[in-house]
Every structure is written in C-alpha cells, then in structure tokens.
Amino acid sequence: MPDLHQLSPQTVLSKYYGYEQFRGKQQDIIDHVIAGKHALIVMPTGAGKSLCYQIPSLCREGVGIIISPLIALMQNQVDALQQLGIKAIAINSHQTMEQQQSAQCRLEAGEFDLVYVSPERLLMDDFLERLDRVSIALFAIDEAHCMSQWGHDFRPDYARLSILAKRFPSIPRLALTATADALTRQDIQNQLGLHADSQFIAGFDRPNIHYSITQGENPKQQLLHFIKKNHQQDCGIVYCLSRKNVEETADWLTDQGFVALPYHAGLSAAIRQKHQQRFLKEDNVMIVATIAFGMGIDKPNVRFVAHLNIPKNIEAYYQETGRAGRDGQTAQAWMVYRLADVARQRDFIESSTAPEQQKRIWHQKLNALLGLAEAPSCRRQILLRYFGDNCRPCGNCDNCLSPPKKFDATIDVQKALSCIYRTKQFFGVAHIITVLCGKSNAKVREHGHDKLSTFGIGEHISQKAWRVIFRQIAALGLIHVDVQHYNRLRITDKGFEFLRQKQTIELTEYRTLKDTPDRKKPKQQAHEAASESDQTLFEALRAKRLEIAQAQEVPPYIIFHDSVLWGLVREKPTSLKAMRHVSGIGDVKLKRYGLPFLEVIESAD
C-alpha cells in the first residue's frame, strides 16, 4: 500500500476502513485537524469519534499519540487497527520492561502510525523527553470528561494533561468525549487551551435506545422479568451500586440460567480481565458490574443496560446507557430506583472531603438526574436538554408510551411531613408509613405512636404508594434521609417552608408493575425480516467469524461487525471484487478474510 501520509482522508476511509462516506460532522472535524487546529469533540457513543483522530493521525506527518484511560480499551483499539493494516501499538504496564523499551525505541524511530498510552505514562519525564525527539501528528485525549473536576469521572492524572498546551503548543490537541455538559466542556477547553471555535458537538440523541425508569419494589425480580420478556438471548450490562450487590445479583442471575459474570474493583485484575474478555468474545453473556466496568467498551451488540440503583448524575447515566446499541440496532436502557438510592448518593456527596463548592455542583447534578427519574414527560427531551440539545417527544420511552398520571398531593405531603415531625424526626420511612397507615405493632406501641394525631391519617393510601410519595418528596428536597443515623427521615428547610407557606404540590401517581408500559415494538430491522435461508447464511458467516476470531484471540466484532455480515448476506458476492463493495470491508480485510467468507457464501447456494 502507498504511504498513508500521501493519501486523502476519503481514500483512507475507503481503502482501510471500507466505507465510502463520512458520517455527520466527521469530515469537517478531520479537515479541521489535518489543517493543524485543535478540537473538542462531543459525539454520542457509536457515532464514530475514533475516526476523528485516527484518520488525521494517518494523513498528517508523524505519529498520533492517543491518551486512553484503560489498558483493555487500548488493546481493543490496537487490535482493530492492526486488522486494518495500520501500524498501531499500546505501551502499558501489562508489557515487560523489555517490550516497553522496544516499543519506545520503535516509536522514536518512526515505525508507528498511532501509539496508545495512559495519562500516567505520558506524564513520565522520560516519556515526555522521548516525545520531544519524535515527529508527532497530534495528541488525542479520549474520555476527556475525566479531565474536568465537574465531570462524572474526574481523574487527577487527566487534569495534569494541561502540560500538553505548554510543552507542545503547535501540535493539534483533540479532546473527545460522549458526555460533557456545558460546565465540563468549558473546563476541558480551559485546561487544554482550546478556543471556543474549536468545539464540535454532534448531538446527544441515541434514537435507537428505549429509556425506561420505574420504582423499585423487588429489583431483582423486576430485572428478571425485564430480561426474560425482552432479552432472553442477548448480551447486556447490569449496574449495581456496591460490590456486594454485584456478587449477589450475578450469582442470582446464574441460578436463573443466565451467563452472568461479576465485575468490580474488589476482584483481582486477572478475574476482571477474564470476565471482560468473555463478555467481549462470547454471545449471550451478561456483565453485572459497578461503574468500574465499561468505559470505552466497543462491543457493538449490547442489547440492554440495566441499572438496579441510580448513578450519581445524568452524565454517568448517559455514558453507561450509551454502551447499549452501538451498532445502531434497537436497545434498551432500563432502571429501577428507590428512596434508599437517593439517600445513599446524597450521603456519598456529604461524606466527601471535596470543597463545598464542588459538593453543591454534585448535588445540583444529582437533582437533575432525580428530575429525569421522576419526570412525567418525555425522558429523551429532558436528557437532551441537559446537554443543550433538544428533540420532539420521542415516542420511544416509557413516559411517551404511557404518560404517568399526576395528582394534587398537597394534603398527603402535609400528612407525611407532619408524621415525621410528630415522631421527632427519629425514624425511617418504614416506621413512618406504618404510623400513617394506622398499623399497630410492638414498635409503634412502644413509642406511643398509636396515640398520635397522625396515626392512621394515611390509611387511604397503600404502603407501596406511600413509598412512591416519600421517594418523590426526597427527590424534591423536602425531606432528607440521614444515612449516618439509621436512615432517619428529617424535614429540610425547604420542607418546613412548604408547610409554612401552604404551598401546593403535584406528584406522580403510583402505578403497579402491570401498569408499567412495555417498549414500543420497534420498526423491524432489515435482518429481522430475513428469509430462513438468509438467516441460515448469516449464522454460517457468524460461525466462520468466530472461528477466525478465536484463532487470533480477538473479539469477533474486530473481524467484522454484524452489519458487515448482513451486507454479505444481502449482496451474496461471488468474487473478491464484488465483496469489496460491501460497506465495512477495506483492502486489507478483503485480502485476509475474503476467500474464507466467499467459500461460506458459495457453499450455501
């Protein structure tokens, strides 16, 4: 193949990646960077961010230095590039000292097109000194929200990357992320010395994802019902808040007959690596994880992401749910949450040693997420509005499909707050609801709460419905759950103001699980209408792909995405020349894999 640096971006896209057209803002961004300019790039997961730094790295003189947060993510990217015939390598701590030294000498000799490193390695004095002697095409900072103290996954080593603007001022600096609100974007720009006109925001909508959030009554059973009804044979990710919940949920799902693997920071690196590789390389595998899992996961056919607890803010929710449906096919983001989740997240913030200003920002971000969770209107509109984007009511979220009913809850909330006050703000939600419903038990009688004026004043509402009310008024900030003192409910200043000013309030009605809407039947994908013979051919091609991937010890999607296999099914090429016209097959992959896949197609005739 000719020298990459002599090729146009369009030629590189076609010859190496196998695509004939750029998507969205890719062309504008690539031209901007090739011209030597800096950029902040915000694109939804699956929109093709990596091409925005890979192609400029190939078309400009020098090597592209890609800064990435996770070794597994780096290796997946390198494996995919090497499949395309591009000279890429990762330099990381999983390698021996000899391997690291060899790679760095080859870097200095100009042997690579792209080199992936962690921020920690990049910032080592000896590595920076080596880069001073290297021709560099650009610096690309992936998962750039980690740079900002206002981002949802702040990492101190990322913040130190501001050195790039001082040490390498003339080399293009790219910051890429799928999740950054206006405050985070401004912080990234300030740290990297980027100008306002260098910002490319490609929209945040993921229209193929169906969003659903519901009250948690029996989360594990609700999860089981959701999976059995919608995703019996699919890959998915289940997020839990604690390591203990991860282990228990993974074991429980395994007992139900699923392949469910735990992943959290308390497991050894070897086990985490083993479970992640199984998830990447096998079908029908679920990962049950804390937020320690998932950043930059490239697996395209994750069909659902489920949350058994609320995350800490909308950015985290958007990034985690964005791991579903990277291939553009229908996927689901499903979440249950309870009052305890609200209390735990607020406690995490208050127990932090962060400055008060930062705590206030975190509370505001959590409040925005609670607003999304409790909203009676289109979830997608609220989600996009948070990032400065917009859309019409989507018709593909639970609230659009079955708008929840609202009611005047003024009297009920007054009763709830009054009961908390009269029980000395000393008890948890379960006891308060027991008193409101007029249920006498030993604890109620021991404290004389069966004699209170609030005893039984809420018996017209079921205990489950009361829980929904308490969850909503906690989200609205009228009450606080004191996690440090046995989850006691306390009335906030805002709650007392509500009582003093005799404000009115509307809340969402409790609805049973039977009332919870299913997702709308999505528009049928082309392959879902495939004939039996086409489906058989697809499975044969998938089996060949798996055989090749296992021989090379790489995930199957690195060989070909499902979309490429369906392209082969649709076109049924009879020659290598004809196969080259299938989207996603470039020259190198055609040479490597064309004949084996042609044989499968021919044998199916």
Range of strand content: 5-15%
The number of distinct β-strands equals 17
> How many alpha or pi helices?
28
Uncertain runs: 520-524
Which strand order do you get reading across the main beta sheet?
A: 3-4-2-5-6-1-7
Envelope shape? globular
Radius of gyration: 27 Å
Helix content: 40-55%
Characterize the largest beta sheet: strand count, sense, and whether it forms a barrel. Answer: 7 strands, parallel
Q: Calculate the mean pLDDT score and round it.
A: 90
Q: What distance separates the N and C termini? A: 34 Å
| Class computed from helices, strands and strand pairing | alpha/beta
Task: Produce the secondary structure layout.
Layout: H1 9-17, H2 26-34, E1 39-42, H3 51-59, E2 63-67, H4 71-83, E3 88-90, H5 97-108, E4 114-117, H6 119-122, H7 125-131, E5 136-141, H8 156-159, H9 163-167, E6 173-177, H10 182-192, E7 199-201, E8 209-215, H11 219-230, E9 235-239, H12 243-255, E10 259-263, H13 269-281, E11 285-289, E12 302-307, H14 314-321, E13 331-337, H15 339-350, H16 356-374, H17 379-386, H18 398-401, E14 406-408, H19 410-422, H20 429-436, H21 442-446, H22 463-475, E15 479-482, E16 488-491, H23 493-500, E17 506-508, H24 532-552, H25 556-559, H26 562-571, H27 576-579, H28 587-604
Parallel strand pairs: 1-6, 1-7, 2-4, 2-5, 3-4, 5-6, 8-13, 9-11, 9-12, 10-11, 12-13
Antiparallel strand pairs: 14-17, 15-16
Helix pairs in contact: 2-3, 15-16, 15-22, 19-20, 20-22, 24-26, 24-28
